[in-house]
Amino acid sequence: MNWYQHPAAIEQLATAYVAGSLRGRARNRFEAVMRHRPELVAAVNDWTDRLAPLHSVLPAQAPSTELWGRIARATNTAPAAGAASWWRRLLAPAPAGALVVGLLMGVVVPAVWQAHVARQSDMALPDSYVGVLATAQGQPGLIISSLRRGKVVDIKQITPVAVPAGQTLYLWRINKAGAVEAVGPLPNGKWTHLALNETAEQVFFPAVELAVSLEPLGDQPSVPAQPFVYRGLCGKLWR
To answer: Which one, of 52, 41, 36, lies nearest residue 17 by Cα?
Structure first.
């Protein structure tokens, strides 16, 4: 009997995977099996949810000057002076728990998403763009999807955020170089839709991430005025 047929082994490995202590070849083997075993994905999702409350119990941490340099080198970005203030506001300060969960989301979501796509690969699904966004606290936030050549975006709000009077949710796309570009205001609600002026292919093709901020109602901002309230991966759902 293989290890992935033992519930106790699945639980231990999923815990280590989410905690980051499962590394090297063992981690690679776990991810390879997870793409074909829904019970592993469920275990990873369960442990990700269990760790989410960390953000509420750990103190806030302000990134050091050294960390800013590492972030810039890792993302291959060097913000201009005029952009530096908003760029820093998007990243700091944040609760330490949120930073931990954010790192977990960055590690876990791609693998879970790949597993989901692998399980669906033999089904006749329409070509689509899909964004899976988390809240600033690492909770599941929004699912954003649109047909590849469609002009309507469907939005499912999993975890709502407070939208003050006079403000609106605003959608941004982020390309592989880290550049942030406006897409447009989003309606607020559990199930909503956004009409595009161009096809989803034209709007989302450059995006590796999607993000949402709160902006003054009626404005057409060129950069976010506030930290993102949702952020996550954007991918294409076709071969």
So the answer is: 41
Domain with CATH 2.60.40 in the chain: 125-239
* CA distances to 3, 17, 40, 104 from 29, in Å: 12, 11, 12, 18
Per residue in 77-86, pLDDT (tens digit) is 555 444 445 4
Distance between CA atoms of residues 149 and 147, nearest Å: 6
What CA–CA distance (Å, rounded) separates 237 from 117? 7
125-239 classified as CATH 3.40.50:
no
pTM metric for this prediction: 0.53
Model confidence at 225: pLDDT above 90: no
Strand partners, 153: 194
From CA 106, how far away is CA 132, in angstroms rounded?
11
- Can you spell out the DSSP letters for the chain? --GGG-HHHHHHHHHHHHHT---HHHHHHHHHHHTT-HHHHHHHHHHHHHHGGGGGTSPEEPPPHHHHHHHHHHHT----HHHHHHHHHHH-SEEHHHHHHHHHHHHHHHHHHHHHHHHHTTS-PPPEEEEEEEETTSSEEEEEEEETT-SEEEEEESS-----TTEEEEEEEEETT--EEEEEEE--SSEEEEE-SS-HHHHHTTEEEEEEEEEETT---SS-SS--SEEEEEEEE--
